[in-house]
Design goal:
By secondary structure, the protein is α/β, with parallel strands linked by helices. Helix 2 packs parallel to helix 3, helix 7 crosses helix 8 and helix 20 packs across helix 23.
C-alpha cells in the first residue's frame, strides 16, 4: 500500500480528494493532510509518504518552496496541483524538482489515478535515484506552455531516443479512452502498427493524445501498408490526424495545435475518423447556402418532421467533404436547433421533455465525432420535438379551441389579430395558424368573421343603430368591407337582412 500525503490550504478540496477515489482498492492510503508547506514538511518527516500531492499557492509556505526543500532532501515525488493562472509558479516548481502536475479544475478520478501510477515502477523498485522525466510529462509541459521555447529538455530527450532519425511525423488522437484504456495499451497497439519505426506516445489529457513517430528514411507512412486504415480498424471510436513529415522538433507544439484543429473535421465524415494532414490542411469554406426562410416556415408552424427532412437534405451536401469548418458546422446545427426548440416551447409550454431534449442535444453535439453521430442525434432530437407537439395537441386541442373561442367572443369588437391570440395562448404564431385550420376547418380570419357577423345580425334585428355604427361595433373599421363580408356569409347585404327580419320573413 503506497502512502500519500495531501497538502492544500482548502479544506473542502482536500476532502474532495479523499472521496474522489476508493484509495485502498487502488493500492493507496492517505496517511496525512496539511494546509501549507510548513505543515507538509512536518508531516513528511513524521509519516514518510511515498507520494505527495501539493497545491502551488498556499499561505505560510507555498508549494514552490516546499518542492525545493523536498528535492534538496532527496524526498519522494511531488505532484503539483495548479490553476490555469499559475503557470509561472508551476514552471518554477519544475525547476526545483516537481515530478508532475494536475489542473485542479479539471481533476478527475481517472486523471489522478493515471498520474499517480506513472510513479509506481520507481516506487516499487525503491531506487533512491531520481527517475528521468517521461515523454508523457515532457510533452504535456511543452503543450500546456509550462516550458518556453526552444524546449531544450524535450529536444534532448527526443534526439537521444530517435537518432539517427532526421524526419518526424506526429499523430494526434482525440477521444482515445473508449479504444485504449491507458497509455500502455495505446503503446502496445502502436507497436503492432509501427514495427519498423521508433516512436513515443502519451495521453496529454483524458481526451487527447500524441504519438511522435520517427521515419528513418523519410518514408511516407502511407507507403507502409495503410497505417491509418489499420489504426481506424483497431480504434473505431478514436479520431486522429497524421502530420506531414517535419525535420525541426521545435515544431512539435505548433504541429500538435494544427492537428488538434484538423481532427475536428471528422464530424463531417460518415465512416472515417482518421485522416492525413494533407487531406485537410487546404480545406476552405465552400458550402452551399442554406435556405433559412424555408426552414423557418417549417419551424414556426412546428412541422418538425419536415424541418428535419429539409435540414438533413442540406447536410447531405456537406457529408464526407471538408466544405465547412467544423466550428461553423456545429454553430450552424446549434442555431437551427435552438430556433426549433424555442418554437416548440411557445407551442408546448407544459411539455417537460423539452428540457431533456435540449440538454441532451447540446451535450451530445459537443462530444459527437462523426457525421453519423450528428445525424442520429438530429433525428432523435427532432423526433422528440414532433412528439411533444403531437402530445400537446392531443391533450389541449379541445381546451385551446374553447379558450380561443371565449377570447374572440370577448374581444371581437377590438382590432385583434392572430398575433394577439398567439400571445394570449402562449403559442407560436405560425403554429397557431395551422392549429386553428386543422382543428376548426377554418382560417383565423374566417373564424373571427363568423363571430363578428353573428353579432352583427343580432344588432341589426335588436337595435336601431346604423349599418356604419354596427360595422364599428363588431370590429370592422371599413363599412364597405363589412358589407362585403356580411353578404359573403349571409347571402344578402346588411340592410336587406334587417328589412327582411323586421317583416317577419326567415333567411
Amino acid at each position: 500500500m503506497k502512502k500519500l500525503l495531501i497538502i492544500d490550504d482548502e479544506f473542502i478540496f482536500r476532502q474532495g480528494l479523499r472521496y474522489l477515489l476508493d484509495w485502498e482498492s487502488c493500492g493507496y492510503t492517505i496517511i496525512s493532510e496539511a494546509s501549507n508547506g510548513k505543515e507538509g514538511l512536518d508531516a513528511l518527516g513524521k509519516y514518510k509518504p511515498d507520494l505527495i500531492l501539493c497545491d502551488v499557492v498556499m499561505p505560510v509556505m507555498n508549494g514552490v518552496e516546499f518542492v525545493r526543500r523536498v528535492h534538496e532532501a532527496g524526498g519522494p515525488p511531488v505532484i503539483m496541483l495548479s490553476n490555469f493562472d499559475e503557470f509561472d509558479k508551476v514552471r518554477r516548481a519544475f525547476q526545483y524538482g516537481a515530478s508532475d502536475y494536475l489542473l485542479k479544475n479539471k481533476i478527475s478520478s481517472e486523471a489522478l489515478l493515471k498520474c499517480l501510477e506513472r510513479f509506481s515502477f520507481s516506487l516499487e523498485s525503491a531506487s533512491p535515484k531520481r527517475s528521468e522525466k517521461s515523454f508523457s510529462l515532457l510533452a504535456r509541459q511543452v503543450l500546456d506552455g509550462y516550458v518556453a521555447p526552444p524546449y531544450e529538455e524535450f529536444q534532448n530527450y527526443i534526439h537521444s531516443r530517435f537518432l539517427p532519425v532526421q524526419t518526424f511525423r506526429l499523430l494526434y488522437i482525440h477521444n482515445p479512452l473508449p479504444d485504449f484504456k491507458d497509455e500502455y495499451h495505446f503503446h502496445e497497439n502502436l507497436e503492432t502498427l509501427l514495427p519498423d519505426n521508433k516512436f513515443c506516445c502519451a495521453f496529454t489529457t483524458q481526451n487527447h493524445g500524441v504519438c511522435l513517430i520517427g521515419c528513418p528514411s523519410g518514408l511516407e507512412l502511407e507507403e507502409t501498408g495503410g497505417f491509418l486504415y489499420r489504426l481506424n480498424e483497431i480504434a473505431p471510436h478514436t479520431s486522429c490526424v497524421l502530420s506531414l513529415p517535419f525535420l525541426d522538433i521545435s515544431l512539435f507544439p505548433a504541429k500538435a495545435e494544427l492537428l488538434y484543429d484538423l481532427s475536428s473535421y471528422s464530424i463531417l465524415f460518415e465512416d472515417r475518423l482518421c485522416f492525413y494532414e494533407s487531406e485537410l490542411s487546404a480545406a476552405s469554406e465552400s458550402a452551399p447556402a442554406f435556405a433559412t426562410d424555408i426552414y423557418m416556415q417549417y419551424v414556426h408552424s412546428c412541422r418538425f418532421k419536415e424541418a428535419y427532412s429539409f435540414l438533413s437534405e442540406y447536410l447531405d451536401t456537406l457529408k464526407n467533404t471538408p466544405r465547412m469548418k467544423p466550428l461553423n458546422f456545429k454553430k450552424f446545427l446549434e442555431y437551427t436547433f435552438y430556433i426549433s426548440i424555442q418554437s416548440a416551447r411557445k407551442s408546448a409550454p407544459n411539455c417537460t421533455d423539452l428540457n431533456y431534449i435540449e440538454i441532451h442535444f447540446f451535450k451530445s453535439l459537443d462530444s459527437a465525432l462523426s457525421f453519423r453521430d450528428v445525424n442520429a442525434l438530429l433525428e432523435k432530437a427532432y423526433r422528440g420535438l414532433a412528439l411533444c407537439i403531437a402530445e400537446t395537441n392531443c391533450m389541449d386541442s379541445e381546451s385551446h379551441i374553447s379558450i380561443m373561442h371565449k377570447f374572440l367572443e370577448e374581444n371581437y369588437a377590438n382590432q385583434i389579430t392572430l398575433y394577439d391570440l398567439a400571445n394570449y395562448l402562449h403559442m407560436n404564431y405560425s403554429y397557431l395558424s395551422t392549429y386553428i385550420s386543422t382543428n376548426t376547418g377554418r382560417h383565423f380570419s374566417e373564424y373571427l368573421n363568423d363571430i363578428r357577423i353573428r353579432h352583427a345580425k343580432e344588432f341589426l334585428i335588436q337595435t336601431e343603430e346604423s349599418i356604419s355604427s354596427i360595422s364599428t361595433t363588431v370590429g370592422y373599421t371599413d363599412q364597405s368591407y363589412f358589407g362585403k363580408i356580411f353578404k359573403k356569409l349571409v347571402g344578402i347585404p346588411p340592410l336587406q337582412y334587417r328589412n327582411i327580419k323586421r317583416k317577419g320573413d326567415t333567411t
